[in-house]
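Changelog note: in this version the structure field was regenerated for every chain. One regenerated record is shown below for reference.
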Amino acid sequence: MTIRDATEADLPAIVAIYNESIPGGMATADLAPVTVESRQAWFRDFDPGRRPCWVAEDEGQVVACVYLRSFYAGRPAYHKTAEISTYIASSHQGQGLGTLLKKKMIAECPRLGIENLLSFYFDHNEASRRVNEKLGFKDAAHLSEIAEVFGEKRGLVIAILRVGSGA
């Protein structure tokens, strides 16, 4: 398994993994597949030195990605806070890859200037809850029934991990 900075050539694989997560209604609030074209500007916003996007490759195939996004539209007062997201191909789920990717990104947070790491996940997503608990995230908010995913009301949990000097 190789973990590396994503390149634009990886975008089709990243989009395919993301789209694979949509029908299950567990990992994203998108309800229809996204396109590579619609994600090009999104992808170009990543910065390996501040807000990276990494992919995991298994035998040369991209099987997962993990990335950081600025919190609250990047408003300056939140510059030390980022949101972490992880998407794993179904063929590689349940093998500890999500934990591995999050651990590696957490370890990089001090270098990236991040003190507060947020994880947003649906309240019915037990796999995300378990990974977050294992890594020390604490639930900070629960917004019940804030989303409707394929006809079901779903809540959103916001968990936080203090990774900076105030941790």
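Spot check on this record: The two ends are 30 Å apart (CA to CA). The longest strand covers residues 138-149.
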